[in-house]
Amino acid sequence: MTLDIDRLLTTSDPTAVDDLYAEACRRRDAVYGRRVFMRGLIEVTSHCRNNCLYCGLRRDLQCTRYRLSKDQILDCCRTGHALGFRTFVMQGGEDAWFTDERVCDIVRAVKQEFPDCAITLSLGERGYDSFARLREAGADRYLLRHETADAAHYALLHPAEMHFEHRMQCLRDLRALGYQVGCGFMVGSPGQTLDTLKKDLAFIDEFRPEMVGIGPFIPASGTPFQHHPAGSVELTLRLLAIIRVMHPHVLLPATSALGTMHPQGRERAIAAGANVVMPNLSPQDTRALYSIYNNKLATGSEAAESAADIRARMKAIGMDVPSERGDFVGTSER
Ligand code: SAM
Ligand code: SF4
């Protein structure tokens, strides 16, 4: 299938869209089979020094903040391991408490207790030496969405003290250090155009990340973009499918933002070529405080409940959910 990206992003021909989804699933299945990998998401801190204009954790927002202790994080991993998770994703705001020393200590402790598990970090921008220390301590993967591949669009979404070039440099540093790297963006973020989306796709095509996280933008109360409309589920699904066709080996989550926007959002993402789900393993009492956008999914449910729910949903659409690390397979080469 040749990818006419302009047409695929704009067509109202349902057959063209169905063909795209079918091709995406064929390519995914040829690499990974009909399998969906689970990642246990642990939201380690809601403190953030940054002021991204779209995010409900931005520093200017007055809200109750929390951070998890090493013991709390280990407890989340214990619960997750018993539920069959073999990847833990530690995500949070850019919180100065999480020094290299503390993160390394936590990573080593998790690796020591769960040597069969992969650790993904998603703690925002850090320096090369910091990324190197965390990698040395045992972190396998790092998620850092590039947010947009267009510098002017980046400047519209972020305060002046945040720099597009630095974000891109972080991604290159992570790659050089041997991480499995994830980039990504929100669909429908303020200022996004067909042109900026095409730049995102061109960047992904060139960078060949091991993971790509995309989900609709959802407004967050109290942020400068609180009244901006949410991104489109349909467009997100098309983009997932295009990315799968472009890069069949990529690990592609059916994001919670999609699940928040549509009751069948994650199932539809799998039918468009996604192959990862990330149920929440965070303690029940902190989930509502990690409010990056409004009406976030499953804020009150227990880890076991979220995991059982997502497993059942995946099985119902004919996907297997193995208890495996689910590493990137193959090559990032084109
Ligand atoms: N602080 C780290 C960072 O920025 O990379 C990790 C946590 S941050 C909350 C994770 C991702 O959430 C961001 O990369 C962004 O794309 C997404 N996000 C933030 N605000 C959002 C919103 N209002 N709607 C949808 N996604 C959002
Ligand atoms: Fe902080 Fe990440 Fe939110 Fe930006 S997107 S304010 S870095 S948590």
Secondary structure topology:
Blueprint: H1 5-10, H2 14-32, E1 37-38, E2 40-45, H3 70-82, E3 87-92, H4 100-113, E4 118-122, H5 128-137, E5 141-143, H6 151-157, H7 164-176, E6 180-187, H8 194-207, E7 211-216, H9 233-246, H10 256-261, H11 265-271, E8 276-277, H12 284-287, H13 303-316
Parallel strand pairs: 1-8, 2-3, 3-4, 4-5, 5-6, 6-7
Bound molecules: S-adenosylmethionine and iron/sulfur cluster.
Q: What does this entry look like structurally?
A:
Helix 2 packs across helix 9. The protein is globular. It has 13 helices and eight strands. The model has no long low-confidence stretch (mean pLDDT 96). The chain has 334 residues and is an alpha/beta fold. It has a single domain (5-316), classed as Aldolase class I (TIM Barrel), CATH 3.20.20.70. S-adenosylmethionine binds next to loops.
In CATH, what is the class? Alpha Beta
* Range of helix content: 40-55%
Protein structure class = alpha/beta
Q: Please state the overall shape, judged from the principal axes of the Cα atoms.
A: globular
Strand order of the largest sheet: 2-3-4-5-6-7
The CATH topology label is: TIM Barrel
Strand content: 5-15%
| Average pLDDT number | 96
Low-confidence stretches: none
In short, what is this structure?
This protein is 42% helix and 11% strand. The protein is of the alpha/beta class and 334 residues long.
Essential attributes:
alpha/beta, two-stranded parallel ribbon, TIM Barrel, six-stranded parallel β-sheet, 13 helices, 42% helix, 334 residues, globular, binds iron/sulfur cluster, binds S-adenosylmethionine
